[in-house]
Please model this.
Amino acid sequence: MILKQRLSHKINDAKLLYSVLVGYKNYIEKVISSMGDALLITTKLGEIKKVNSAALELFGYGEEELVNKSISLIFEDNKLWQQAFQSVYLYKKSFQNREFICRKKTKEKILIAFSCLVIKKKIDGLEDIVYIGRDITARQRRQQRNNTQYAITRILSESQSVKQAIPKILQAICENLAWDLGELWTSNQYIEASVQRCSSNPVLRCVEIWSSRTFAAREFKAITWQTTYTPSVGLPGQIWVTRSPVWMSHISHCINIEQLGKEQGADRRSSAAVEAGLHTAFGFPILADNEMLGVMIFLSRDVQSKDADLLQMMVSIGSQIAQFIKRKQAESALLESEERYRDLFENANDLIQSVTPYGRLEYVNRAWLKTLGYTQAEIQKINLFDIIHPDFQEECRELFCRVMSGEKLEQLTTVFVSKDGQKIFVEGNINCKFVEGKPVATRGIFRNMTGLIVANEALRHQQQQTERVLLDILPEAIFNRQKEEPGTIAEDFANVTVLFADIVGLTEIASQITAIQLVNILNKIFSVFDQLTERYGLEKIKTTDDAYMVVGGLPGQYPNHAQAIALEGTALSPEGTRYRERAIAQMALDMQTAIAQFNTENNKNFSIRIGIHSGSVVPELISIKKFTYDLWGDTVKIASHMQSQGLAGKIQVTEVTYKCLRDEFLFEKRGEIEIKGKGKMTTYVLVTRK
Model:
């Protein structure tokens, strides 16, 4: 009975203990079920014995899919897990908050911080290992986004150009957010100009790609470079049209192959993406002031669910990039404008300078330096008034003050002194730049007039020499009389032929060359004309600018001047003297030949316009210009009109002259032209001698 009583007490104690253990077990089960952290209990071999509801919800599996399965099913890097597991089991050590990359049932990666410990049992080898994990993916993503935002801000602040910044931005986003590949799509060449202004229906092309070293899908990249999209087609086209970010969790499910097939290579690109193992993609617009500049696309081999916060951040980043691009475009346009104006200044023949209010030269162009002989380094050490001739300094100081007070000076003339002491005569204009009502710089543009002044001086010297020659030829009394009363001795000649010639194109070139160069050109041409005049026994009347006047039929010349060419080589004098007078018509043809030869020898493109008329004139018998006669009358005026209203490279004659020459020369009828004071006159074009 005592034994029974003792046994009964022990049984009661055991039942009581069992009841307590059951209650404790139920309590623990409730605690485990209500835990927010994931709990997994495994054997020493890693076989899962128990999981709580938080673990099932976190990894997306059912209980039957995890129990009796290896815990390596949820770890991304099994080697890392194996090392940690062995360390815990072999050395009976626990670890706290060790981070592991895990995969959900959907293959989506998550970051879990695990704490692990070994539950000892009385029998060695039967220990259980407990894993308690907390999802820290959101925290990691926040850190990644902060790093991304910081990296992009730094890139945009340090980059000198769009082309330098874009690859770095793609790399920063991929590396910080753990994406495999980034692309930039745009409708023009590297966003160098406004897309909307370039095309109303743009074609999108990939202009930049960055990929991680672990992703080497060469075929996919090659196809991407060749692929184009139009708006609304493909992921870049959808973003372009909607101007909003787009997320594709499963590329193979979301891409409309039939629609993409309409675009060049689009179906190949989608197939290549799937073959390369790419699963998720997202993109966002680069948008500034409602203007689309481009689209950025990012792709990953991992399956990732839509992240609205990330898309919102990328919209902000896209706006940052767009503002950076617009700013660089403005800077580029400004720099281009500055370079264009600097090129104009540096290549100008005029002297251009900019001077501070204190007289310091802050800018001079190449022509200025070349003309005055200074170097750029020397300019920094001299003052404006150091280069102005002493005789003009007082006047220039006064003008300088007037300009800085706001007065506008249209024209001024002064004299600079070159480095070697030569006088440089210049004329031009200056103006003053004001900032907030204060003068900050005076700017001047001057033309070097030294050559023209020297040429005028040379012409005056030549005129003096001519007068001295005339004094040697004419009696001093007659010379003085004609000098005081020119044109007072005159008589009428009723039958002469007048030729006017004008060199076409010389007037435009005269504005581009110095006076001496112009005189040299005219001297070469007119010397040939003078030889023709002498050869044909004609009289040169005068030259005015680039016009040349000749007359035939004056006393001492062959009377039938208009037809003299037909009698070339014939003995005409009763004394048997052989005359070779040549008339106006043949000289006009020879003048055309002479101009053509001059062009060939001097690489010029001049042409001559000639007018001829026959009639009466009133010559000035003796004048200060002894070597020519000064003619006037209707014949001279009409001949001048024949030239001025003629055609370049042609010889225009009146009907009177035509009737004199038509038997010996070929003509083309031009028709009637209006002659001031004479009405309509019929004219002809002399072609050649028969």
Summary: Residues 35-135 form a domain with the Beta-Lactamase fold (CATH 3.30.450.20).
